[in-house]
Every structure is written in structure tokens, then in C-alpha cells.
Amino acid sequence: MFRRHMQDIRQGMDHFEQFGRSKGPQGFEGFGGFGRRGGGRDRFFKKGNLQFIILQMLEEESRHGYQIIKDLEERFKGFYSPSPGSVYPILQMLEDRDFVSISKEGNKKIYTITDEGKTFLKENVDQDEFTKRLEQFKNVDFEQMKASREQLQGLFYEFMKASQSALQDEEKQKELNVFIEETKQKLERFYK
Fold first, then answer.
1. Close Cβ partners of 121 (under 8 Å, ≥ 6 residues apart)
2. Is 133 helix (H, G, I), strand (E, B) or coil?
3. For residue 32, is it left (φ>0), alpha (ψ between -120 and 50) or beta?
4. Contact 169/8 with Cβ under 8 angstroms?
5. CA 140, 145, 147, 148 torsion: positive or negative?
6. pTM of the full predicted structure?
7. Who has the most CB within 10 Å: 68, 71, 126, 134?
8. Other beta carbons within 10 Å of 179
9. Which domains are assigned to the chain?
10. Burial class (CB within 10 angstroms; exposed 0-12, middle 13-18, buried 19+) of 37
């Protein structure tokens, strides 16, 4: 049992280290799948979700790429901040599919939703699970979530140190297993 815990911990450590080194939050799977890595389980932005929300934003008003990035960051109160490397290829794909048109304003490309893009949104809005997921987070206190995430990050770090120490001592291994099980049961009381 302990060895399996340690394998899970080592795999999670890669995720944890990426979180700590990045410019922005990578996220924890347990927080609604926020994040870019997410272990594939339940990522916040699944394939196609970001293009859908960008189209929705362009339906509200035309924007340039940098404005889209900043508006997404503001919409998620800094909890999610897309990179230009994720937004601009999506804008190119939307243009290739004739969902957006581009006009120039100085050095900036202004993206405007087309009739095809509006039709796509209308045909898919009821089927879009992402829109439903976003509704869950409409009134979420992202600052509190960030603070909780930072607390969990610190807790995870302490857990990693304790786990490494327990590798050297069989008695500590048993004690840590009991602690993990008790903690798990206490946490389950919050949502059961």
C-alpha cells in the first residue's frame, strides 16, 4: 500500500513542480480541473472549449488578440491566463473555418465573428458542457480559491517531505499510512 502511495506521490510531484515553476497557475485537478496540465482527467479547458469561449467573446464585440488574452484573464480573475501560443493558433483556426474575419487597425488585427461563427455558436450552445461548467464558477471567489490553492501547495510540500522521510523507516511508513487514511476520512466529511 505504501509503495503505491509513493508512486502516486512521485507522479504528483512532477505536477507540483510544474506548478511552482510556472509564471501562472497550472492548477489542481481537484479544483474543477483548472489548469493546463490536469493529468488529462478533467482539464478546465478541454479541446475546443477555448475556441468556443473566444467565439462567444467575439459575439459580444470585436477584439484584437492581446485584448482577448487580457479579457480572458480578467474573466477568470487571473486564475487562468492563456498564453499567446494558445490563443493565436485558435484565432487562425477560427479564421480558416470562416468563423471570424480579420480587419486591420494600425498594426493590430481585429477579429470579428462572422455569420458562420454565429451559426456555429447557436447550433452548439445547448450541447456545450463547458458553458454549463462556466456557470458553476460565475460567483466563485477566485481570490479565495487561489489562497486555498497556495495552502494546499504548502501542505503538499510538507507531505512530500514526510513521505521521503518515511521511506527510510518502516515504523514511520505505518504511521504515515494511518495519518493518510485518517486525513482522507476527515476530508470526505466535507462533501459527503
1. 52, 55, 56, 59, 113
2. helix
3. left
4. no
5. positive
6. 0.53
7. 68
8. 13
9. 2-31+145-188 (no CATH), 47-139 (1.10.10.10)
10. middle
Grid coordinates in use for 32?
474543477
- CA distance readout (Å), 132 to 46, 117, 119, 125, 129: 13, 20, 19, 10, 5
Placement of cell 495552502 in the chain: 151
Report the chain's C-alpha Rg in angstroms.
21
DSSP states of 65-93: HHHHHHHHHHHTTTS----HHHHHHHHHH
Q: Which three cell numbers stand for residue 14?
A: 512532477
Strand order of the β-sheet with 100-105 is 63-64, 108-113, 100-105
Q: What is the pLDDT of residues 98-126, one digit of tens each?
A: 999 999 999 999 999 999 999 999 988 76
pLDDT score of 182 more than 80: yes
3-state SS class at 32 = coil
